[in-house]
């Protein structure tokens, strides 16, 4: 009835005015609203301070993300308009556990094999993965006199602690990537989108991976160099996920630029937005097909 | 007749006549009219700098001021706004006059440290007011 509705409203107002935490009100916010800045702001408003202390991230990771921020946004924080990508969210995760699995061999250029566990719980259901990379930071103290060629072997498997593997074969994906880097490079990025895409899409939030590196000096450039004999260490990588947050609170530049100005467009065309293919290259494909459509 | 005219002239001038120049000034150079204002803040002032890494400063801006009686052209207000103004003036002053509110916003990129120590770059819609309207 209207009367009981009014009473409920009064009770809710009284709860707010008395300074009680309005968490019960947050229960009514749907999943999409809970994904963004709103819960953090609600918490600030309800408890009247900046929230609980947070775990501090790795300083190198933070440095990388600050650089990324400067690339994507102006000093005032406005997203730059000359963008060529679809993602509006980038998340960087550092591994929560790391184990050395096997020792390396400097003579053969095999680096110690490591096992990493990434917890991706922060990804919400409205965030869709477009691209993912493993980010390695090259230690400043390591200097390369020549180009180094590396082969990365990566395997993703079910965590040992998982009981869900019972009754079915544990899955594992292997992946090989070959790349070169010289003395100017501070970061190495290994694209692992194809590996992570099915896992993140199926809401898997615990990623267990094993990584092997074999690195060799360029023998053509330095024939005197013995079989890649060099002292090289790679710090455990971070995992960067480039995502498209589809919630209403997230900024959709592509939508703003191409669709808001054309109100006459039909709903079918708008629906095709969510059906773009995966990856940055794919995003470019999507844009070009849109231009073809306009012509 | 002359008598009527002279008696009218002898009457004291009403307040409307005295305030004519003020009346025109209100239309030509409106004071305190609904418009955009700056409000620059730094996240450290709010003690949010422990979780918002960038930007350091933020100007959400805000809308403030009086809504004029004829709002259609300049503010792009709907007819409802005019109707509400008329209701306030002619029928019931307990009905509020139209409010000066943001009409357009721009997004903001934010770099945050999440509770689990991960770092998130996000672009949020509607974080900076860029245009005001009366509604």
Explain this structure to me?
The complex is a heterodimer of chains A (295) and B (135). Helices cover 28% and strands 25% of the residues of chain A. With 295 residues, chain A is an alpha+beta fold. In chain A, the strands form two sheets. Chain A has a five-stranded antiparallel sheet with strand order 2-3-8-5-6, with no helix packed on it. The longest helix of chain A is centred in the first third of the chain and has 16 residues, at 2-17. Chain A starts with a helix and ends with a helix. Chain B has helices spanning 2-10, 15-18, 20-28, 72-75, 79-91, and strands at 35-37, 41-42, 52-54, 57-58, 62-64, 100-113, 119-134. In chain B, strands 3-6-7 form a three-stranded antiparallel sheet, with no helix packed on it. Chain B has a two-stranded antiparallel sheet with strand order 1-5. Chain B has a two-stranded antiparallel ribbon with strand order 2-4. In chain B, strand 6 (100-113) and strand 7 (119-134) form a beta hairpin. The model of chain B has no long low-confidence stretch (mean pLDDT 84). Classes of the chains: A alpha+beta (295), B alpha+beta (135). At the A-B interface, helix 5 and strand 1 of A face strand 4, strand 6 and strand 7 of B. Strand 1 (89-93) of chain A pairs antiparallel with strand 7 (119-134) of chain B.
């Amino acid at each position: 009835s209207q009367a009981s509705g009014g009473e409920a409203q009064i009770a809710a107002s009284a709860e707010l005015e008395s300074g009680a935490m309005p968490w019960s009100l947050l229960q009514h916010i749907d999943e999409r609203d809970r994904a963004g800045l709103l819960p953090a702001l609600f918490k600030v408003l309800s408890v009247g301070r900046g929230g609980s202390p947070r775990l501090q991230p790795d300083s190198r990771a933070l440095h990388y993300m600050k650089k990324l921020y400067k690339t994507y946004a102006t000093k005032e924080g406005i997203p730059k308009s000359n963008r060529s990508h679809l993602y509006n969210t980038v998340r960087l995760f550092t591994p929560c556990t790391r184990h050395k699995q096997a020792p390396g061999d400097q003579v053969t250029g095999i680096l110690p094999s490591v096992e990493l566990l990434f917890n991706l719980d922060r990804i919400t259901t409205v965030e869709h993965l477009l691209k993912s990379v493993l980010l390695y930071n090259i230690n400043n103290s390591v200097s390369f006199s020549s180009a180094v060629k590396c082969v990365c072997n990566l395997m993703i498997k079910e965590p040992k602690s998982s009981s869900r593997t019972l009754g079915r074969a544990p899955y594992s994906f292997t992946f090989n990537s070959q790349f070169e880097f010289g003395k100017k490079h501070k970061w190495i990025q290994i694209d692992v989108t194809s590996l992570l895409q099915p896992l993140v899409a199926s809401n898997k939030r615990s990623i267990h991976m094993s990584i092997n590196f074999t690195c060799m000096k360029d023998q053509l450039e330095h024939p005197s160099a013995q079989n890649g004999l060099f002292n090289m260490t790679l710090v455990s990588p971070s995992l960067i996920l480039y995502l498209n947050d589809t919630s209403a609170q997230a900024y959709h530049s592509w939508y703003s630029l191409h669709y808001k100005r054309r109100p006459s467009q039909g709903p079918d065309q708008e629906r095709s937005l969510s059906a773009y293919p995966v990856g940055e290259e794919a995003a470019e494909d999507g844009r070009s097909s849109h231009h073809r459509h306009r012509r | 007749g002359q008598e009527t005219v002279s008696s009218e002239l002898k009457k004291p001038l009403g307040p409307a006549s005295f305030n004519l120049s003020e009346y025109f000034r209100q239309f030509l150079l409106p004071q305190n009219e609904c418009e955009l204002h700056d409000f620059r803040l730094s996240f450290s002032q709010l003690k949010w700098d422990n979780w918002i890494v960038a930007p350091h400063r933020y100007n959400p801006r805000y809308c403030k001021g009086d809504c004029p009686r004829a709002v259609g052209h300049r503010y792009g207000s709907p007819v409802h706004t005019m109707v509400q103004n008329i209701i306030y003036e002619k029928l019931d002053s307990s009905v509020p006059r139209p409010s000066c509110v943001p009409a357009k916003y721009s997004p903001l990129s934010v770099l945050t440290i999440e509770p689990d120590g991960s770092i998130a770059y996000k672009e949020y819609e509607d974080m900076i007011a860029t245009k005001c309207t009366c509604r």
